[in-house]
Amino acid sequence: MKNRLLPSFGRRKARKLRMASQHAYDEKLSLVNISLDSPPFDPLEKDIWLEIGFGGGEHLLAQLSQNPDVRIVGCEPFINGVAKFLLHLPEESFSRVRLWTQDSRYFLDKTTSSYFSRAFVLFPDPWPKARQHKRRLITSDFISQLSRTLKEGALLRIASDDPSYVKQIQEVLSTSPAFQHVDGPATPDPFTWSSRPEEWPSTRYEQKALSQGNPCAYMTFQKKN
Q: What whole-number distance in Å separates Cα of residue 162 and Cα of residue 217?
């Protein structure tokens, strides 16, 4: 892994945090923050999930609530999003969540092989202009890196509302020897995209896309045995 990577995300912080959010960030982050010196959770745990780019944490909070036996690692460099998530994180869930607030690829590089049983990359920054495509997260190198950390049979859920990015995602995953497509659209044509599956909790980025009249592609891949 190179020491410096071209960031796949934009800004690290937006407006000044409100008092309650700043307090949650200052008081709670240290309780769930990841150190690379040891795994976030005991590798013997049955189900450890990963969400990369959790935004404000709506999906992550829903998954914690709906799956009480699951541990989840969330990666998000956007400070405002992390603070929002921590503000709404129930105290009883502290032991089941760990956060990485830098580029997810540095964390994956240090993660034990076959560690996660499910992963989510929901609405990653699309970088729509052609000159920006090099900043997109989902590339062959990233998928190869992520694949190493997933158990055999692990599900990978990806969503996007950008047709050109959907095309890139589908091309990258279809040529990966580690994954097979199991659900969702197989083309970048928005007319072939279906509505969000019931078992997928909504996110604010999805709601923003839909409010702008943009359909969303919800794709599921599985790591081959």
A: 8
CA angle 154, 111, 178 (to 5 degrees): 35
Q: Could you read off the pLDDT of 21-55 as tens digits, one per residue?
A: 899 999 999 999 998 889 999 999 989 999 999 98
Predicted TM-score (pTM) above 0.90? yes
Domains, the chain, ordered by start: 19-223 (3.40.50.150)
Residue among 77, 79, 102 nearest 1 (CA) = 102
What residues are annotated to the active site? 125
Token reading at 11: 């800004």
Longest dimension (CA), the chain: 48
Between CA 20 and CA 144 the distance in angstroms is 39
